[in-house]
Amino acid sequence: MPIETTATVVAEVPDDAELLAVPYASDLSPGVELPLPVSGLLAHYEAKGEAGEIVEVPVARAGGVGRVLLYGVGDGSPKALRTAAAGLTRKARGRDTLTVVTPDADVAPFAEAALLAAYTFRIGGAGRKAVRELVFAGADEERVRRAETVARAVALARDLANTPASVKNPAWLAEQAAGSGLPVRVWDEDELRAGGFGGILAVGRGSVSPPRLIQLSYTPQEPAERHVVLVGKGITFDSGGLSLKPTANMKFQKTDMAGGAVVIAVLGALAALKAPVRVTGLIAAAENMPSGTSQRPSDVITHYGGRTVEVLNTDAEGRLVLADALAYADAELDPDAVVDIATLTGAITVALGRNVGAVYASDDVLAKQLVESGQAADDRLWRMPLIEDYTPALESSVADLANVESGSTFGAGSITAALFLREFAGERPWAHLDIAGVGRSTVDEGVLTKGATGFGVRLLLEWLTTS
Ligand code: BES
Ligand code: MN
Ligand code: ZN
């Protein structure tokens, strides 16, 4: 299910607005009769004006008693407006229409958060529905439409990642990508073999659902100066393979294609946002399963481009599928920058927790742009170091590289994973986003719903449309 709530823009508050939300600061529209002046009401409710604060007051209306939601906007920053908007949508759950007099600021972050907070994913009819319609009164229509495009892209990424792995497999993911309407190229198993994509094949060989490499292409109307390649990890289920995960860790691994979902959703939104860059999306899709045909710990595989890797742990599979895609992008696509996005390591959750994603980069300008875009778009990133001293962690006695450290001399699981990927990214500006911590939410709060978050969609769309 995408966001079922619709967004409408009207010039003025309609007289018959069922539920009306008004920021503390603004004058109330005519036709609404409050029991006290606004200042008196706020004092009565001891309201401070913080973002997220909502005071519900009964008002006399032509047909009886209506309600007005007076809402705080804090310091009026985009962050505060997002909190305020998400709170209003949540407050209006189960209602038909919420009419909002929008704050006196750019309405895009506000409208985006209001829509995102309406996101739900349910299979079956249970649960209270989000508000059916959001009406933004007095808002800039173009900014609302931009916000809606972004919010619906985030919702698509969430839907793909929330879909059970009994439904989604690599071929299904390829069909979803094709649904974007963009030119798509899909490598099936035979084509992957012919092309030398040994990492994707090795990870996928234990599953009855064979792997795929999916390529989506966006070309802007005007000739583009830059070409960006986005690479997403598309593990439709990560059981760990023969290096099997314990039950407690395995049940969350249907979202291990969250990076690939972000790439599909971003590519699908670029045309509507008139992004001025050429973008190629690559989704390396496989299901990591244990079986008689699985790869084994100690197997040596040959990646796209010829590099060999000793697989010491089949649960470090994300880097294996990404390595092929990164090497392919470098050899064949001639990009100006490559950004990969992956739920790569549990270790990054230890380092940065659930609110901030990691960015590793070979290029300072690229790192800065991504961090700033994340800040602006509310997908926060923290730059992590590629510590050179740790590169010996991935030495192998039988192959060019090992996929994990065999001992525990170095640790730093997210950093060594990034160092592994760097080996395949070539000399071009490259960044790696480890979203294992932020890709899934454990709470229903603000713009987040329990389950997949779509982290990365807003930041990449911001980056691709502004820098
Ligand atoms: N998909 C996992 C990482 C992950 C963990 C994502 C938790 C979301 C939540 C990844 O493939 C993995 O298994 N990583 C291993 C690497 C280890 C074997 C070096 C990990 O983090 O334990
Ligand atoms: Mn794994
Ligand atoms: Zn994984």
Write a concise keyword list for the protein shown above.
single chain, alpha/beta, Leucine Aminopeptidase, subunit E, domain 1, Aminopeptidase, 2 domains, eight-stranded mixed sheet, six-stranded mixed sheet, elongated, binds zinc ion
Secondary structure topology:
Layout: E1 6-10, E2 19-23, H1 38-44, E3 54-61, E4 64-71, H2 78-91, E5 97-101, H3 108-116, E6 133-137, H4 141-162, H5 170-178, E7 184-187, H6 189-195, H7 198-204, E8 212-218, E9 227-238, H8 247-250, H9 258-269, E10 278-288, E11 300-302, E12 308-310, H10 318-333, E13 337-342, H11 347-352, E14 357-361, H12 364-377, E15 381-383, E16 401-402, H13 413-425, E17 430-434, E18 440-441, E19 451-452, H14 457-466
Parallel strand pairs: 1-6, 2-4, 2-5, 5-6, 9-10, 9-13, 12-16, 13-17, 14-15
Antiparallel strand pairs: 3-4, 7-8, 8-10, 11-12, 14-17, 18-19
Helix pairs in contact: 2-3, 3-4, 4-9, 7-10, 9-14, 10-13, 12-14
Ligand BES binds at residues 238, 252-253, 256, 313, 315-318, 343, 345-347, 404, 413, 436.
